[in-house]
Recover the amino acids of this structure.
């Protein structure tokens, strides 16, 4: 099948993220006309039209799992295989575009992969990956992740990639290392950053690290030192600052948000976020 030139992809596993996803789609559609794939699971089909109302939205099944967090992680491993595009921008569904990002597609003319660093980029200090309080590098190495003091933790909420053999290899290794994470839940949290960093270290794709303005985690705003306008805000909708909420404010989203308060579970009380 001939691939389309470029497009977006996101993941929606469970109703807790449904409001986030509606506003994600609204923000992308405000600035872009490219197709958007949503890998979806554990959402009743009668709600699908609320996603498809934004036009050119392709719903594809995500890996099924009772735990929507694990399902979303497994869907991220499948991003390369599920993409229909030569150039793909993946974003978590709790992201809001604040301006067009056409240049990201252009950046992919020169590299295989575009990423952003985590707010704590040093793997050696990434205590967020462990369930236990012990040395981080030696713990990660002991389970089979090829990481060292120089390894970087990237935030998987924003990944752009090309259709290439190098990225096929990258995602194969990503799956291999995430299987290790799942098999060692006694010491590791169910996160994908360590596996992704290990895959990058193993495959060494031609890549570029983008500025935090392309993956700005508002929760950690005091950590950043940036001098350019934020383009991509990463923040669940209930906590989003008003200027970002205004980006997706329409008659449709206003009616939806009022209904969501009554009918949808509150993302802030999502018990799976603690797993």
């Amino acid at each position: 099948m001939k691939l389309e030139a470029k497009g977006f992809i996101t993941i929606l596993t469970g109703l807790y993220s449904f409001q986030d996803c509606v506003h994600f789609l609204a923000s992308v559609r405000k600035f872009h006309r490219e197709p958007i794939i949503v890998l979806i699971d554990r959402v009743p089909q009668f709600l699908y039209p609320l996603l498809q109302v934004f036009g050119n939205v392709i719903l594809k099944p995500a890996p099924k799992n009772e735990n929507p967090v694990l399902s979303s992680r497994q869907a991220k491993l499948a991003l390369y295989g599920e993409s229909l595009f030569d150039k793909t921008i993946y974003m978590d569904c709790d992201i809001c575009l604040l301006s067009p990002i056409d240049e990201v597609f252009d950046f992919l003319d020169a590299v295989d992969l575009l990423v952003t660093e985590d707010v704590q980029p040093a793997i050696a200090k990434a205590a967020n990956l462990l369930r236990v309080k012990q040395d981080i590098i030696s713990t990660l190495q002991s389970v089979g992740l090829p990481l060292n003091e120089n390894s970087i933790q990237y935030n998987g909420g924003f990944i752009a990639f090309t259709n290439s053999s190098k990225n096929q290899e990258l995602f194969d290794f990503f799956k291999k290392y995430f299987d290790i994470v799942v098999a060692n839940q006694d010491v590791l949290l169910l996160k994908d950053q360590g596996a992704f960093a290990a895959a990058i270290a193993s495959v060494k794709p031609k890549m570029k690290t983008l500025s935090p303005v392309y993956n700005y985690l508002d929760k950690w705003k005091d950590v950043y030192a940036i001098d350019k306008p934020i383009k991509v805000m990463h923040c669940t909708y209930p906590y989003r600052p008003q200027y970002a909420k205004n980006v997706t404010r329409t008659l449709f989203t206003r009616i939806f948000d009022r209904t969501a308060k009554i009918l949808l579970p509150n993302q802030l009380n999502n018990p799976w976020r603690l797993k």
The longest strand covers residues 4-13.
